[in-house]
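Lab notebook page, bench 4
Experiment: in silico fold of construct C2
Operator: M.H.
Input chain length: 271 residues
Purpose: comparison with the prior construct
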Amino acid sequence: MDHVPRNSVPGILDNRLLDNGCAALPAAHLFLVITRVECYVSYGLGTFAAGKAQMTRRHKGTKARSHHNTKVPNPCPAERQLENSHTRKLENSHTPMIGLIRKFLFRKGVREQLARQKRTRQVHTLESARTVGLLFDATSEKARKESLEFAQALEKQGKKVQKLGFFNSRQLPESPGFEAFSLKETAFDGQPKSNKASQFAKEKFDLLLTLNPEVLPALTWVAILSQASFKIGFATAEPNDYDVQLETPEGKGVKYFTEQLAMYLGKIVLK
């Protein structure tokens, strides 16, 4: 297969450029990048398929010209395994590029949303907030359990808590016990297409708490679109709309975050 020069793919696919100035890239250029990536993948697979077909024709020709007692040997299991491995590599070779394009579109869309974002901001503590929106990663059983326990603790304090969980998988489990959406209900850039997520974002909570130690584009989008007065989440280098970000040591989960949250908000004195 002919080699595609590395510098023939526009430089926006470089991680460094994803972090600097990518928001200003014209849509026409992005379309060109995606088109060229698709062409390279199609070209690679097409060349491989053509070579395979040519090889098959050669085998057939050999068999036709050979003596009637001569048999063309079938590929051994090791050869078949190697051939299948090459095919899978070609089919998956575009995955890193698609990941970079997805990340680029996520950051570009988020920055555009933040530029036109309008909401009424007001500082709240766990004491002053009457309504709380709890947005959390429900994929992990441990994180899910700690998030629900925290929600229960807030309800015991007389808070009206509305929960929305996100499962980073294509399918939702049966009867999760709370409002939730899945990866299947998101667009290519991570933006939710779920009615539950849209409704949650429209609610004007006094306080929005996002419990996701790992960056999940779907939860970032909901947090940005939320009309809550005061937003708090895990510290992140990604574009966001949090009023407060709490730095959490790596490996520390939701429980540690909620403990630090209570301590931090307890120090705020409202006038």
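Observations: The helical segments are 15-19, 27-65, 77-92, 95-115, 141-156, 195-202, 217-225, 254-266. Strands lie at 131-137, 160-167, 180-182, 207-211, 230-234, 244-246.
Next step: discuss at group meeting.
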